[in-house]
Amino acid sequence: MRAVAGAACLLLLACRRPAPPPPGAFQAQLQERLIKAASGETIEIPAGRFEMTRTLTLTGKTGVTLRGAGMDRTILSFAGQASGAEGVKVEADAVTIEGLTIQDARGDALKVERSDGVTIRDVKAEWTRGPHRDNGAYGLYPVQCSDVLIEGSVSIGASDAGIYVGQSSRVVVRRSRAERNVAGFELENTRSAELHDNVAVGNTGGILVFDLPDLPVQGGRDIRVHRNTVRDNNEPNFAPSGNIVAKVPTGTGVMIMANDAVEVFDNTIEDHRTMNLAVVSYYVTEERIKDARYDPLPEAVYVHDNRFARGGYDPVGGAALQSKKVILALRLKLGTPFPDLLWDGVVRDGLTARDARICFRRNGAAAFANLDAAHDFRNVSRELSPHDCALDPVPAVALASAAVP
Amino acid sequence: MKRGAALAALALLGCGPRAVAPRVEAPYPERLSEWRLFAGRPAALLPNDRVVTYDVSVPLFSDHASKHRSVWMPEGTAAEYRDAGPFEFPVGTVFSKTFYYERGAEPGEVRSGVAGGRGGLEGTPETRLLVETRLLVLASSGWVALPYVWDEAQTEARLRVAGEERRYAWQGPAGERERFVYVVPSTDQCAGCHVRIEGRERRLRPLGPTARQLGGEYARWQRLGLLRGVPASMPTWSIPGRSPEAARARAYLDVQCAHCHAPDGPAASSGLSLRFEEPEGVGLGLCKRPVAAGRGSGGLDHDVVPGRPAASILFYRMASREPDVMMPELGRNLRDEEGLALVEAWIESLTGDCS
Questions:
Q1: Does A287 touch chain B (CB under 8 A)?
Q2: Contact of A200 with A207, CB cutoff 8 Å
Q3: What is the pTM of this model?
Q4: What's the ipTM?
C-alpha cells in the first residue's frame, strides 16, 4: 500500500510542470545569442512552444544558422506580439533558417532583406485562425536577396502571399506547400528563378509571377515553373484592398503579369473557378503607370506540356471592386467555362499577337482565348494558331554554392 | 606647483574629476557609469569634463519621452561639417541620449516634460524617471549602438543588447491617460533605424546631428572646438515657394521617417522617400501605390492622396497603434497628435488628383 502511495507520489512529481520562465525571458536570451553570434555559428532552439513579444532579429552576420528541432516541433508564437512589424527579420549573408514554425506574426512571419545566400528549409509560417484579412501579409518573404533556396517549407493563411520572393535574383523554391493564403507562391520583380515540385492548394491564386512598377528593382525575367501541383485555389480573396493581390480573382491557378521570359511546363493545374492560367499585362489592373522605366507587357512566355482540368467554371473577381467588374464583363463576353489559357491580348502599337511571343503547346485539350482587353473585350479570339510556337528553354537556376551552404 | 601636486593626488585617490573613459572596441562596459560620461550622482546626469550637452531642432517622437543628449570627442579632435547627412565624427566619439519622463502620481505613471526634451534637462533626479541611455560610439570598426537600461533605484544603467520592455501609463497635459509598452530597442533594432545602405553593405551611423538639426547650436559647437568647416550659409528647414507650415511638416516627416524611407535607407524597397529634399512627386508618395504594405494599407489605394489625409496610407499608418500597421515601426507605441496635425494639414494643402 505504502509502495503504491509512494509511486503515485513520484508520478505526481514527475507530472508537475516546472514553473514557466517569466514572459520575455526566453526571447531576450535567444535574441542575445543571435546578436552575439559569431560567423559560421549555429544557434539551436529546442523543441517547444515559445511566446514571443517582439520581432526576433538576425542582422549583419555571415554564415549563421538558426535551427529549431523541426517544423511544428519548435514553435515561435507571436500571438502576443507587442512590437515590431515582423515575426522574424533577417538581414545576413549565407544564412540558414530551418526546422521551425512561426505562428501568428502581427506582420510578415519571416522577412529576409538584402541578404546574399539564403536557405529556408523545413520552416512553416502559419496564421492559426486560417484566412483572415488581419493576418500578416507574407509568410516566407525574401526581398532584395540573391541565391535564395526555399525547400520543404509551408505557408498557411497569409493575407498577401504565402511564399513570396521579391526583387531578388537566383532563386529556387521547391518541395514546398502553400495553402489558404491569398497568393500561394509569388515571384515579383525577380530574375532567374525556379519554382518546382511545389503544391499550391486552397489559396485565392496558386502561383503568381508579377513584374510591377515603382520598385527599385525591376525587369522580372527568366522564370521556370515546373512540376507543380496547382489545385482548387478558390479561397475567397481576403487581401486588404489597396494591395495588388486584392485584384487577383478568386479561383486563379497561375497568373503571369508583365513578366518576360517565363517557361511553365509539366504542371498539373486544375479546379479553378475563374481561370487555370492567365498571361496578362499590367494594364489589367487599370492603374495609371507613372514609372517611365517600367515595361507593362509580358513577352516570351512559353506554356507547354501542362495538364489542365476543370477551369473557369464559375468566374468571380477578387477583393477589389475593379477586378469584380472586369471578371463580370468578361463573363458576359466569354460565357462559361472560361478557357484554360487566357491572354489579355495587349501588344505594343503596331505589333501583332504573334510578335508578343506568348506560346502555348501540348497542353492537352486546354482551350485558349485572346481577350482583346485593350478594346474592352470587343474582339475576343479563340484562335490558338498565332500562339502555336516554341521558345528556347529558360535555363535552370544555378545557385552560388559559396552563398548557400 | 603645490596646487598641481594636490590635484594629481586627488586624481589618484579617485575623488577628483575623472575623465571620460572611451572604448573603441568590444567588450563594451556592462554598466553605463564605467564610461564616466556623467559626474556625481548618476541620476543627475551632470556632464563630465568635456562632455557637451545639446539639443536638436526637430526631435524624433518617442512616446512622449524627453531626451537628454550629449556628445564627447577625444581631446584635440572635432567633427567635420557636412551639408547633407550627419557630420563626420572622429573615432572615439561617444553620443549619449537619455530617455526620461516626469514621474506621475502613481508608480508606473509617466508624464512628459513641459519642453518635451527641448531646452535641456527638465526636473530633478527625484521627479524624473530615467528609462534608458543609448550610446552611439564610433569604434575603430565603425559605429556601435549600446542600449543601457536604468534600474529602479536610478543608480545605474545596465547594457541590454536584447532590449527590454516597460509597461507605463502616460498622462497627457489634458488629463488623458493611455497605457503603453515602452520598448527599449535591441542593438539590432537600433540598427534598424541607424543604418545606411551602401550597395550591399549596411553601415551603422548616427542620424544626426545634421546641419539642419543642429540649428542654433553651431556657434557653441564651434566655440567648443567640436565642429570644423562650417560654411557661411547652411541648409535650413525651409522650402522655396512653400509655406512655413508645409516646411515644418516636411521637416517632421524627414526626422520621423527618412532614416528608413530614403533611397539609401532600409525601406528603400518601398519606393517611398520622405527626405526633406525629395520633390513633391510619386517618390514622396503622391498618388503612389503601396508595395508590400499588407494590411498596413488600411484598404486605401495610395500613400498620399493630395487634399485627402483620410484617404492617405501615410496618415493612416502614422495614426495607428497596431504593431504591423503603425509607422514608424519602432520606437513608437503612442500617437503623436501634434505631429499628426502637421501632416494632416500638409496633405490638405497639396493639390492633384490620383484617379
A1: yes
A2: yes
A3: 0.86
A4: 0.78
